[in-house]
Amino acid sequence: MEHRDLIVIGGGPAGLAAALAAREAGGEDILILERDRYLGGILNQCIHNGFGLHTFREELTGPEYAGRYLDQVRAAGIPQQTDTMVLSLTPDRTVTAVSPGGLRRWEAGAVILAMGCRERPRGALNIPGFRPAGVYTAGTAQRLVNLEGQLPGRDVVILGSGDIGLIMARRMTLEGAKVHAVAELLPYSGGLRRNIVQCLEDFGIPLLLSHTVVRIEGRARVTAVTLARVDDVRRPIPGTERTYPCDTLLLSCGLLPENELSRGAGVALDPVTGGPVVDQDLETSVPGVFACGNVLHVHDLVDFVSEEAALAGRHAAAYLRQSRPAGRRIAVRPGAGIRYVVPQYLDPAASDGPVTLRFRVSKPVGRCALTAAQNGKALLRKQRPAAAPGEMERLTLDPALLGEGPLTVALEVEA
């Protein structure tokens, strides 16, 4: 059994930013564990630009953004171990992992969970039909095209309008494929507005809202996909079917935080986000275990992942110094029009500055106000020209304003 002060599980953008912030906050004995051969996580296959505008004030590709953090982590001398799969994490922060060198076990003073997320597979979607070749998640297709130089197909239909699905519609088109349509079950897109414009509208690719796949044709290989409009309770409407001959179906139907390790450690999970329940320091229900990035809740911009992860790293370092005072816990709840809020608890006594509440609205709205209220009294109000589920919203609150009772974040639609 080896000892490490701080173990960061995951070497993607969240893990790199957390480890670097922990080192800058005085943490010395830090180890990053990454299951892939390279650090950088999903950014390595995101060769499109649009990253870094908030963090570095310039537009970067995914590998360039990861490279900035990799350079800083290496300059700080933070050890990393790649090709290492963490098998388990216990409530007493014992980490067991396997690598080509064999099985290893560490006893950690603190742990940061930064495992990211995965795509929802076809098996979770209940699409009728056989299981032919040609059905891929959008992320798998992105890896095939961008890292392995393989084109999954020539005639494509995409189910789901999350950001990766929108980006792959453009990417497949640029590689010479024909994208017939992007279908979305909901009456609105789950992606960023800029991606809808740049990836679909600029290339003349139809976005079919309130549509889903009702049939996949083909046995050895996909030969066609049938789409149908759905009603208000998301049931296909008979007579609205349309069949698209194609050889490929890409699925972009949501992301799921990778929380098997969290669950095994006894970490309480939020039923809406699928990630850990945390306080303002991003500490989970298990003392000394922190969470950040897409394993906590799925983000829209990697810049916000890095910002959040840096907070986790600083507070993990403070935990190791035992310099975190404890006080009362105030619950943070989603109110009208809000799907979820992170963090789920606040402790004003333990806060070392303003607290950022991150959340998503339940459906698209026009002019509105985002409010944080306690006992019926509004503590903060932020007006927005529009809000949509695809874009994360934030409110920054001074903990000194907090009294007793739960804090509620709500949406008010304005005329």
Give an overview in words.
The protein has 415 residues and is an alpha/beta fold. Helices cover 19% and strands 33% of the residues. The chain has helices at residues 13-24, 62-75, 138-146, 163-174, 193-200, 260-264, 302-320, and strands spanning 2-9, 30-33, 49-51, 60-61, 80-81, 85-89, 94-99, 102-113, 117-119, 135-137, 155-159, 178-184, 207-209, 211-217, 224-229, 242-245, 248-251, 255-257, 289-291, 330-334, 338-342, 345-346, 355-361, 368-374, 377-384, 393-397, 407-413. A hairpin with a 2-residue loop joins strand 7 (94-99) and strand 8 (102-113). Helix 1 crosses helix 7 and helix 3 (138-146) packs parallel to helix 4 (163-174). The chain starts with a strand and ends with a strand. One of its GO terms (molecular function) is oxidoreductase activity. Residues 5-297 form the FAD/NAD(P)-binding domain. Keywords: Oxidoreductase.
